[in-house]
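Page 42, continued from yesterday. The earlier attempt failed because a stray header line got pasted into the input along with the sequence. Redoing it now with the clean sequence only.
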Amino acid sequence: MIQKNITEYLIRQAEGHHDKTAYADETVSLSYGELYEESCRIGTAISKYADRLSNMKACPVVVFMEKSPHTLACFFGSLLSGNFYVPVDENMPEERIRLILDNLSPSLIISDEKNMDKIGSVAGDIPIVTHKEASGCAADEGYLKKVEEVSIDTDPAYVIYTSGSTGTPKGVAVSHRSLIDYADHFSAAAGFRFDDVVASQAPFHFDASLIDIYCTLCTGCTMVIVPIRLFSLPVKLLEFLEEKQVTLIRWVPSALNIVATFKALKVIRPGYLREIIFGAESMPAKCFNYWRSYYPDAVFMQIYGPTEITGICTYYIVDRDFADDEVIPIGRAIANSSVFLLDDEDRLITPQQVGVKGEICIKGSCLALGYYNAPELTDKSFTQDPLNKNYPEKIYRSGDLASYNERGELVFSSRKDFQIKHMGHRIELGEIEAAACAVEGIKAAVCLFDDKKNKIIMAYVSDTDDTAGIIRTLQKRLPRYMIPNIMKQLESMPLTSGGKADRQRLKAMFIEG
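This time it went through. Structure tokens are written below.
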């Protein structure tokens, strides 16, 4: 039978492994059976609060909670009720929350008690229910069964909001089919096992968390939520991994770099770790080499994929050594996805054209449904495949640049909007950043371009004050026109909630400020 709903994984695990721990944090642990039962109660509550017993049509349910196993029960409860969930960062500024709610017009908001006042101040007349109230509802199995019967795999499963260039958040809507393929294909490619313990770093409103949530659900392994405070305490972080017997992590490079910067693995090396997956931004080879020196037999995997294609479209299992100043490839397309490069004239760049850069384009079941309540924005990014003139076929234009190396592997270059014209030359800021991150002593580096002053600005974190020495090293690796004009040393790099460098904040500090 064809799987239509991502929650069928949950039902399967609850039936076959009722007492096995599914998701846990420091205070809460839910087995697969407990998780399913709580999700059914919440799903029934959603149907009553949203007044949907007579109208089974997918509607948005905002989940406004701290990261917890109970948050996941709210996600799954939303899906069981025939709706889709929208995780909203509880630390987000109120004005941004208002923009999201205006775009969504949700049927219901579920909040933990801690955040009720904050969401209540911006929700207007949108109904709000606490998790405690929703999970206390008696499950209506008859209703949930009816929902299951009428659901189809192209129904939306979630909407995740990302930053928009106009200042308005974009809601990426993803279907059950895309999410099912994601869980099936990636858990197989990455070799997830039933006995794995996955340490979750990414916030649930960030698509990097999808691996943690759904590959766990698909394979029946266990996920533990790492307390966010530990990412500023590297030794304590590693002690947590050892205590929880963590076997697999999928972290953003900035989280892995914290451990490398403080040489924490010299103090404690967690003994159960067998696989390290990194993505969301390029992994500096210097950081990778540090981790690999302590885990020579572990599997290391770099992944790539925008939110608009359900988070992953390529992966690369690192199978060779890399110098500190080399770039680790993003590899090849995941199963049932097509990933290719187009030049500025929409001509296909082939693997034989080594080093020729083009825009990464993707097609397949991984594509999102589009941007929620934003048809013009959707049409701009989800377009007809220019290589196919015979029938309608959508592709997603990522806005990212890449090229093929001699092995036919894709190598990420930079964002198209990070490409600048300076001193008569076309320059990719990501290339300068990669060179800077390979310099001894530099922990992080981000480049910006002040087009009014025609200046390249490099903000960096380093354990040395020798700015002149850093520039001399860069002069050995980069042409003169790519050397930053202005150097700004920081005590720490500002990060977004997803763990990426916060370029908007840096721009405000050094260009707009």
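Notes: The radius of gyration is 23 Å.
Reminder to self: strip header lines before submitting.
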